[in-house]
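2024-03-11 09:14:02 DEBUG pipeline.ingest accepted 1 chain
2024-03-11 09:14:02 DEBUG pipeline.ingest length=171
2024-03-11 09:14:03 DEBUG pipeline.predict start
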Amino acid sequence: MIAVPICAKTTKEAVEKMKKGEKFADIFEIWLDQMEQCDISQIRKATNRPIIVVNKGTKEKGAFRGAEKERINRLMTAKKQGADFIDIGIQTEKSLMEKLIKAPGKAEIIISYHNFSKTPSIPELEKIGKQALNLGADIIKIAVFPKTAKDIEKFPIIAKKWRKMGRKYII
């Protein structure tokens, strides 16, 4: 599956970029933190591809600079407007995550863990996956920085465990 990230300032610009990327994309990832104005319902009408919406704050190396509550409110609006998936960081305050999960809309919740300096051990990855599920994840996402072949060898091991459990995951 090819995910095409869409970084745009406005809904109109996002739709234009999506039209250019549609021949390549299986799924689009809309980066709300890059947008000054966004209407997911209009983006939804512009494509039949699934849409993932993310809104990363500065702690997650994103561009959203507002209050944490406002960051989650923007994701809740995207969920209500027809996003297929909402990707939210595992470190998000639990009460805000619960609010997002309970918000109207059919989007599946991707709870993601990012570590751009290392790849955790298999027991650590298992713990992260369990934490994501306990928080309400429909899909577990792990984005790490493998430095060695041993790091890469962890991915099929953890994927096999999660697959046996019937869990959806992105590594």
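2024-03-11 09:14:41 DEBUG pipeline.report The chain has a mean pLDDT of 93.
2024-03-11 09:14:41 DEBUG pipeline.predict end
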